[in-house]
Amino acid sequence: MSVAAEEQALAAALAAAEAAYLSKHPQSAARHAHALRFMPGGNTRSVLHYAPFPLTWTRAAGNRLTDLDGGEYVDLLGEYSAGLYGHSNPVVNGAIKAAVDAGTVLGGPNVFEGRLAEAICARFPSIELVRFTNSGTEANLMALALCRALAPDRSLVLVFAGGYHGGVLDFRNGIGPLTAPGGWLLGTYNDVQGTRTLLRENAARVAAVLVEPMLGGGCIPGTVAFLEMLRNECSAHGIALIFDEVMTSRLSTSGLQGLHGIRPDLTTLGKYLGGGASFGAFGGRAERMQWLDPGRADSFAHAGTFNNNVMSMAGGLAGLTEVFTPAACSRLNALGDHLRERLIGIGRAHGVPFLATGVGSLIGLHFARSVFPVDPLARRCAALDAQRRSVEALFHLAMLDSGFYLSRRGYMALSLPTTADDCEGFSAAVDAFLVDHRLLLRAVIPG
Length: 447
What we know:
The protein has 447 residues and is α/β, with parallel strands linked by helices. The chain is 42% helix and 17% strand. The protein is built from 13 helices and 18 strands.
């Protein structure tokens, strides 16, 4: 098949899938058209947009979603890992409802925040003191601000191409136009020797290293050798090591840092830890966090009207102490590991460029023959990237048609209500897609 024929075949398949999608979801299409009049792109959260228009959800229960046109889907996206407890956990929802019934926006401490802080410190041995924020983005910004305040003569922060730490700390394609101003030093993820050299050459100017122990974009795990090198170099040069575990804290009862036995100086958290309400947190060694103690005459002020809002505090406390037990954590991550291996096996059996990466309940699907090395800044073929995006769109629409919801880019975050039958059903849908399109996939994604 020639390149032109490949492109035509892919374009025709995608056009047919979009036409079928439009005919099946007229009310979501109409809702989107109305929203376009008042929001850029009809959207207020870029990641939720996909062509030709996103589905509109009207209700949810457990790990099932219902759209505006009455279709029901198994939710495999889990609100980008924030929906760990599902959509209707009675313990979490009951705690939030009781807190709301007792009064919101209290303007002072409430009975939940100290207990939630205690539970987080108990789960994460590296966190001796913790502060709450309203999102993981805000948690990362505050952690960086604290590190820079404690090292005013150091202007740089080492981050990694491909990393994502929030809407204004997005390094997935390098330093972007909306990236917060700052002295960013950009490294290559999982490059042990190159990063060690970069750190040593700039050690006197680096205040902190901010790293995800698994890249959220694509679910690419950091190697133990890479993460241990960061710990050792930061210790040797007096640099703060920040683990962004906003997504990965769910991968064991003490996050990926617990699985690897590596203690950062600071950890940032978010997502599910608010029980479904807006939430973020940063914490770590007392010697650093104590500078936020308002009782100190020389303290740094940390503001945030909704840092301790009762919905996040009550829901987060109930979820962490009563729902996400060690047994529940182990079961869900084992389920994710099994699903990942099953998907890898399906791709291998059909000889197609299809991979599944990640750890535990977080999974990234890739129409590629390899995802290593991680170097999003390397010169890439624009035509091939466009073809891969079209394949991702075709796959996404096929999974929606089969009743499974995941992100357009192939990101999945299983929630506690997910069952083995759900995973088997999804595996069957993937298998059918790869069978139907195996010749096209082999043609458009070179090896």
